[in-house]
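#structure-requests
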Amino acid sequence: MKTDTMRAIGQEPSFSALTDREIRCLQLVAEGKRSEEAANVLVLSREEVNQALVSAQEKLEASNLMHAVSLAMLIGVIDHTDPHQPK
């Protein structure tokens, strides 16, 4: 039986490819932005951001938004480095 993690790290992925908008929205959520803040950054409506996040969650077969962000990090479509951590 395949687990979410196994799919996330590239073993028999069963999800559809994420769009650029979905990836950008997930990245901003990963950085701690709320839908309204992401909408301002991306010059979209809050509804468009929420639609992209729901679509990404469905495509990744995630149980919630944070699960979707985690899976996106695991498969490498969003950056998971901490911009506040010294280099």
